[in-house]
Structures are given as structure tokens and as C-alpha cells.
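Here is a typical protein record:
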Amino acid sequence: MTRVPLRPLARVLEARANGENPDGIERENLRKRHEEMRDTSRLRAEGRLVVLAGLFFCAFLLVGLRMGAIAASEPSEPRGHAPGAQIAAARADIVDRHGRLLATNLVTHALYAQPPMMVDPARAARELVKIFPDLDEERLLDWFTGDRKFLWIKKKISPEQKQAVFDIGEPGLLFGPREMRLYPNGPIAAHVLGGASFGREGVNAAEVIGVAGIEKAFDARLRDPGQAGEPLRLTLDLTVQAAVERVLAGGMQMMNAKGASAVLMDALTGEIVALASLPDFDPNDRPRPLTTGDASDSPLFNRAVQGLYELGSTFKIFAVAQAMELGQVNPDTMVNTRGPLTWGKYRIRDFHDYGAELSVTDVIVKSSNIGTARIAQAIGAERQRAFLDSLGLLAPMPVELVEAPGVSPLQPPNWSELSTMTISYGHGLSTSPLHLATAYASLLNGGTRVRPTLVRSGPVARGPRVVSEATSRAARAMLRQVVTRGTASFGEVPGYAVGGKTGTADKPKPRGGYYDDKVIATFASVFPAHDPRYVLVVSLDEPVETSGAKPRRTAGWTAVPVAAEVIRRVAPLLGLKPEIEPLGPTGITLTSN
């Protein structure tokens, strides 16, 4: 603002010349100056009021928008910010293919002590031992009377135990909230679920982490707060899984076996409907791993996935299928079975003398080692290896279990002609029952490779072709005859047209060589054989059937009856209705009039 002088000299001189009073000029200029100052102050105040009104408008607008958003959102419980609340305890449920609960969280409490707050440590120790008999009274008293300010007594307790501790009336005994992992079905599907334990712990919260199986493989997804309300859906069927485990346990006991495993797989999609390994455990009370001895003796060992075994004659169908695919043989081709078959210092013999020759079909039906070895010789080592690899038998299984990636089949260091012959009838290559089930599904479902899976994720696309539909159909027909007139006659289940192959392999010793009286007995089957829907592999470790005069260990006497009972129990649960098996071609052509 330009300040005008109150008494400008020119105006004063002019006023005096005109006889006017110069003081009036000063008063007028002073009035104008005050008016200008008042107008400036008013404009400044009005501007401030406008800015302040704008700020208030924006603030009320934001509050209104937030209130509208909250009103439109789903209601949720507020969460307190207590010490330890930063530990994420939420964990998503695990359910079977039909939504039935396999694993969930249970609200419980942990018990801890603050010795400086205790009134009567001796009585507290004495009463706690009555509630928890596994505790040591002297040790508790030492802790309560020592220098410790804090100590855990029990990481999880039941509501009844909490009330009993509360009734002690000791102010130094306190409770911390917990969410523990609960498996409502106990040991059912234990090796698939694996188990969970506490990770980071605080007084008011504890982190639940997976330690094995699906729980560990999907630990990040199950702990994701954004997916805590969305359960992880598996391909398992809880009812079928329970039936498989019950029959397998009974068969293991009847056959005096050391262990057993079973894999039931959808032959078209690779979805695992049931996977069992015995002995098993309860994931609610997971045992500690073995620190000495053979890891496979632990109930934590998953025989169906981690166990690598020579699975014997179940491999013979692979050699025959490959030879048919190459055009070298057909089901009626005669094969030289005169024995023994000599290769250097080694002799390959059959369990029985089958004569000078057998048809390719009878090589499978009667389970001729010599016939299978001669077929494999014609195939050659490189082609055999490539074919078995295309079936997934030479690499770890891509199944969603944390244990699976480390299980690589045991191959011969030098895949020689002798290896080619012995591998054709299941010796010299060790794989898991899950490998075998996957290979059978890929070969028998029409000839397309399947990828085993335990997690439902929508429609499954067809894999690459491994054999033609004609070869797959011929292989199924041969396996059907193994049941109707071959080594798996106890495997017949009326109405379900079971086909399969037995395998009895001598069990290797830890330091080399084989036991004379210990075997791995396996039956790999498909049903119905004319319209393959499911593949079942049952394997028994060191079985002995003792109902006869002499002990019998072969798969036809041990694994096959157990598998037949499994199919008899689960086929109706899977929605398969008994049906009359269609007859083969009759040679009669129907014509119209």
C-alpha cells in the first residue's frame, strides 16, 4: 500500500493561498488512510474464513465417506492391540473334496508362571502335579523358588485343566490364549496332513506352523490372513480314506506284515482319493522323529511316498506295453520262455517251469521273468529308459507333499543290457507305490500321462500321450486275465471287473544282498478294467500268510486279498455301481433286413 503524506507541502501552500485551514488536509488524509487499513483487514479476515470453511468442508466430506464405507462393509469383530497380538495365529482350515473338515483351529490356553507373584510355591507345585502327572514336583519347586521371573508350564491345556489350575487360587499361575491345530479325525490321513506345531510364541498369542505333509507344503497359504476364511480343499475323500485305512490295518495284521501302504488314484485326472501308510500316528500328538535306527521304522515315515522299493513283477506290463507300442509284439505273439536265461554269470529263472514258449498275454498272466526279459532285450536299454521316464518312474513325484521332492527313484549306475532285463520284471529299479500308481494310471487310462495331485484346483487337462489307445486297451485286457485266470485270482470283486498285476520282490539287506524270507508284496490294480476309473496299489512289507501248512509270502496270497477287500468296500462309496462286464468281440455281425 502506497502511503500518502498526511500534510503534503503542495496542498498546504495551495490551501494557505486560498485562505483555507491546512489542518483539514491532514484530517482528511488520515481518514482515508484508516479506511484503507480497515478494508485490507476485512479482506484478510474474509480470506481466512473462506480457507477455514474449505478445510472444515473437506474434513466433514472425508468423515462422511469413511462412515459410508464402513456402513456398506461386512461387520467384523474389533481386534485388541495387546502385547503379542502382532503374532499371526490364524490358520485356514483343510477340508476333503466334499468339504468335510480335516484340520481346523481350536481356541485353548497355555499355562505359565511368574514366580515373584507366587504366595505358596510348594502348594502350587504339589497341586499342579495332581493335574498334570507328567510334571515333576521337585523340578517345579526349584523353578518356583529360583531366580526365574517367567516360565512356561504347559503350552496347551484343556478347559477342564484350566479350571482345575484356577481352583488352586495361586496368583502366580497365569493363562495365555492360544489357537492350537486340531485334527478331528485323529490318525486318518495323518501322513497327508503331516501336522503343525507352535512357532513364535508370546504370552497372548502363538504362531501355528506346519511341520510336515500338506501343512508344511502349504504353510504360507494357510497362514495368509487374506485367505484365512477360505479352506484348502484336498482331493481326498474322508469316507474312502477311512475305509482304506481300516481294511489296510486289518490286512496288515492278518498277513503279519511289518508295514503297509495304499494309493487310490483317479485314473483319468491323477487326483489321489486315498493315500495310507501304516503304522501311522495321531497328528494331534505327533511323535518325535527317530534319532537312531532305520527311519522307515518310524510311524512318521510315509511308505506310500517316501518308501523306495523294488516292486517286482508289477513292472512287467510296462515292457509288454512298450513292445506292443513299437510293433514288436501283439498279445498273441509267442515268446521263448525256455530257461534259465543266461547273461554272463547271471541266471534268470521263472517261479515255475512254463515250457518252451508262451504268448505275450500268458507272459503277463503267468508272470514269466524269462519271457519279459526277452521282450525287454528286443526293446533295448535306451528306449526302455526313455519309456519308463515318460511314465514318471525315474524322477521325484510332483505331488504337493513336502516330503515328495526328495524322493528320487534308485536307478542302476550303468543301465546295461542286464539291467534292462531285470528292470523289466521289477528288480534293479526302486520306486515308491505312488510312482507305480501314477505309471499305471498313465498307461491304462487310454494312454495319457497324469500328474498326481492332492489339491483340488478345477478341471484337469489331459497330459501328453505315452501310448496309443489300442496299446492301453490291450494292456488292460491282459491285466484283467491276470485276475480271472492268473496269479491274482483272489483279486476278483464281482461287478467291478478288476484287472491288475502282482509283484513279489525279495527285500534287500541294508549292507547288500537280499533276504531269503522277507519280501515286498505288491498288487497294482485298475477297476473297472474295461472302463478304467481308479487305480489302486497295495503294498505289504514282510507279509507272511500262515493259514496253510507252509508260510506263503507271494503277493497273490497276501497283497491281492487285501486289495480286493479295499475295492469291495470303497467302490460303492465312489459311486460305482456293480455291472456285468461286457463280452469281447463274438465275430457275429448284426445286419438290418
Q: What stands out?
A: The first strand starts at residue 94 and ends at 95. The chain has 17 helices and 16 strands. Residues 77-85, 586-593 have pLDDT under 50 and may be disordered.
